[in-house]
């Protein structure tokens, strides 16, 4: 006896699964994020989807989605009929962004401190030790970002931490330029301020932590304002 089975037809090829597509988008986003934050892709630079797709061996779709992810993070912007580029800020815009940071980051830190356990504080202490040991600008910028964003890790208000991260992303290039100009001779100021913040965090003192952090950000804003040449580069 022959047992027949219903003909369900062949399954159409619908392309990569959602999980694979998402992974591809995240891979492209991670590559571009690192390039932008490291300065390999400078402010004002246009990001052409076809070039990125060819370089990374990806299709246009994950590249397009990656650019949407980065736009939400403040690392790219979309211009109608011109595509994506890395935002370029004026001196005034950076001044305003830093003023926003002066107000929002102390709030994020105060919200975070009660939730930071001993392991988290020891982690921040180790990051600061590495900051004091390095003379490499790239390594300092990476560790400085880890120190500050790590100190906000206990803040449970996503809207606040997402905004803070976006503001950090948008000013990364200018922070690098400032550190390059100031040189190692000014690092003692950064380290002293970090130690004051860290001590307040260890003591659970949100009032002093907010005060020290606000002053730390304000000093950088003022010193950036003394170097208008940072903002005069020609966009590519």
Shape: globular
Q: How many domains?
A: 2
Helix content: 55-70%
Q: SSE order in H/E notation?
A: HEHHEEHHHHHH
Task: Please give the radius of gyration in angstroms.
Answer: 22 Å
Number of helices: 9
Provide the β-strand percentage band: under 5%
Low-confidence stretches: 1-15
**CATH structural fold name of the largest domain:** Four Helix Bundle (Hemerythrin (Met), subunit A)
State the CATH class of the largest domain.
Mainly Alpha
Distance between the termini: 75 Å
- Number of distinct beta strands: 3
Mean pLDDT: 89
For this structure, the quaternary state is single chain
**What's the architecture of the largest domain, going by CATH?**
Up-down Bundle
The largest pleated sheet is described as:
3 strands, antiparallel
Strand order of the largest sheet: 1-3-2
- Derived from helix and strand composition plus strand pairing, the structural class reads mainly alpha
Output the CATH homologous superfamily of the largest domain: GntR ligand-binding domain-like
């Amino acid at each position: 006896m022959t047992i027949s089975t219903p003909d369900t037809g062949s399954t159409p090829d619908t392309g990569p699964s959602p999980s694979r597509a998402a992974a591809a988008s995240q891979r492209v986003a991670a590559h571009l994020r690192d390039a932008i934050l490291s300065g390999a892709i400078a402010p004002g630079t246009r990001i052409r989807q076809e070039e990125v797709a060819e370089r990374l061996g990806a299709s246009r779709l994950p590249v397009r989605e990656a650019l949407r992810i980065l736009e939400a993070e403040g690392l790219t912007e979309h211009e109608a009929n011109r595509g994506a580029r890395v935002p370029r800020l004026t001196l005034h815009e950076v001044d305003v962004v830093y003023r926003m940071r002066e107000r929002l980051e102390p709030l994020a830190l105060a919200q975070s401190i009660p939730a930071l356990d001993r392991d988290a504080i020891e982690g921040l202490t180790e990051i600061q030790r590495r900051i004091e040991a390095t003379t490499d600008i790239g390594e300092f910028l990476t560790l400085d970002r880890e120190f500050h964003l790590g100190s906000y890790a206990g803040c449970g208000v996503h809207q606040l931490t997402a905004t803070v991260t976006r503001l950090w992303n948008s000013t990364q290039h200018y922070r690098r330029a400032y550190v390059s100009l100031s040189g190692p001779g000014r690092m003692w100021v950064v380290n002293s301020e970090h130690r004051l913040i860290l001590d307040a965090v260890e003591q659970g003192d949100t009032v002093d932590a907010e005060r020290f952090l606000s002053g730390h950000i304000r000093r950088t804003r003022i010193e950036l304002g003394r170097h208008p040449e940072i903002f005069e580069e020609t966009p590519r």
